[in-house]
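Amino Acid Chain and Its Fold in Token Form
===========================================
Structure side: the spatial fold of the chain, written down as a series of whole-number tokens.
Position: the record begins directly beneath this header, with no further notes in between.
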Amino acid sequence: MARQFIYDSVGFSEATIKSGTFSGGATKTFTENTSSIANIERIADQNISLSIPFGVWDFNDVVQIDLKSQKSSNCIALYHTGGTQSEDNDLLVYASDSATSWVSSGTPNDFIQTLSTDHPMDDWSVFDITITDKRYIYIYNGTNGDYDYLTEMIIGSKYTFDVNPELNSKIGEQFGTDIVTSYGGSEYANKRHAPKTTWDFTFSHILSTQKTALEALNANVQDWKKFIYYDDSDSTTTPPSTYHYVRLVNPIEFTEVAPNVFSANVSLREQLV
């Protein structure tokens, strides 16, 4: 698998997110209930350390995501933290243009996908999906048990690199320590956080299709939306993740080095838990 960027391309961070319940047969009716899933806004707060409270997302509780207009997406990513073992319940995803209902069965229907796997703790689970021109996304717990430990979600686009960066790309660290020097020359350190990994990629020769894809990333996330960088490495760390939660350090700039051939630089900074 090649390297990838997974990011919010549909305005998920700005979406209106509600919790509730549903009723009905083939056509389900959504009823908002703010107490059904407490702190549901945490799934879109760009913070992977705070999960929704344990034991509150019961069987058949629903999350409604209003993207404000029709949007298309090809990926959903989930982050879980706080548990001692993987979360093995399923989430069912539907997409509709109705603010009050979706069709769960029959032909046609609004079913998108079951997010079904053992979701690891302190790591991302990434799913390929297909949502085309829909405003509302409904996600509910389809397993007879609580869905726990979910801290963050990204809905949007997965971009797989057409070519890899140059071999002279850099990986480093940004220290999280403030150094203060006294009048006598003594240095005092205040460590605010652990070091953050940084990446600096150089693409020497990319075609207009990859330029367009990187421009879309740049336009959607800028320097305020966090996203996922998949590095396609054989990691032996704990947890064994090759997914990194990152932010763009600088806007991506392009130089045309030949007709319709471009060079580009991408700088990323890790976001700590």
In short: The first strand starts at residue 4 and ends at 7. Helices lie at 208-221. The mean pLDDT is 90.
